[in-house]
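G.,

No rush on this.
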Amino acid sequence: MGANAELVRGAYAAFGRGDIPAIVDLVDDDVEWSAPRTLPQGGVFHGRDGVMKFFESVGAGWETLAVEPEAVDELGADKVVGIVRLSGTLRGGKAAGYGSAHVFDVRGNKIVRFREFVDSDQALTT
């Protein structure tokens, strides 16, 4: 496994520990970060402050949320794809989960772009 895939695995591990500052340390100052607006944390975010706002919206939308990577692999010199399953409890107590593909662009040992593509069978809102 290459260095870019290891960097992404490190981001997933940091999320599992609840160490959001460690994730922010892995992103470029001008990172572009996006998730579908159908998710409680969805939207388009820019820069490190935007990534922090994204994770704040994760906390606002979910009581608990776990990410289980099924596969993390490099595609070419600067892309890493993570196939993941997310599950947890939405604010309000409803259990929810969904499958997702995460596409990371990595340059200079920093994440410069993150895109999430969701596979869900039902709406996640309460």
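When you get to it, here's the other one too:
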Amino acid sequence: MEKVTVNVGKTLQGYSASVDILPGWVLGIEGSFDEFKEELQKSIDIYIEWAKEDGEEYPLLFDQEYEFEYKFNIESLLCCYDGILSRSAIARLTGIGINEIQLEHYI
């Protein structure tokens, strides 16, 4: 199965994304990461559908099975795991001495 890398960023009220193999395509939504993933799939589907209708080129891997591989910046990664892992747990997992206050500064 092919992987499509999605560059994820955090906005004030949601998430944004770009996909390197789709120049000029961007997505921004308000809401949770689960809502973001749903809108991401819908947006890609519409993009490909319109490209086909207009006879425009698009990456052919979208004609086969693929899955998204999320590439987070540090802020979006920390926000995505809010409610799943506490800041203190993340601080312990880093193993490099990043404390909770420093994590908050990253966000």
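The chain has four helices and four strands. The chain has two domains: 1-72, 74-107.

Enjoy the weekend,
O.
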